[in-house]
Amino acid sequence: MNRERALKVVMVLVGLLFSAGIYPMTMILWQRNQSQYGDAMMLSLYFTLGIFLLLAVRNPSANASLIAFAAWSSFAHGAVMAVLAFQILVVSTRYLFMQARQFHFLSARTILR
Length: 113
Description:
Radius of gyration: 23 Å
Structural class: mainly alpha
Largest sheet: none
Shape: elongated
């Protein structure tokens, strides 16, 4: 009984969190910020998933596939974002080293004059 109750609490929390994505999604669309349309698309999927998770709280055993989809899709999204974050970190680190090298070169050139 405790396990099912814990599952219901987690489903409500995740459902509310995902459903809260409606606000930033509508702001992106309202302001017509085309550079963030991809974010709005993802938020619309999470908003919909949040609503269905809130509906599934009544009978979690009957909605096991929805719960599994929510868990695995969130895991897959997190994995993709981790790879992208690492790639951005590598690129920004290279840029930082290039800037530092250029700064040292210009400093040495200024000192040697």
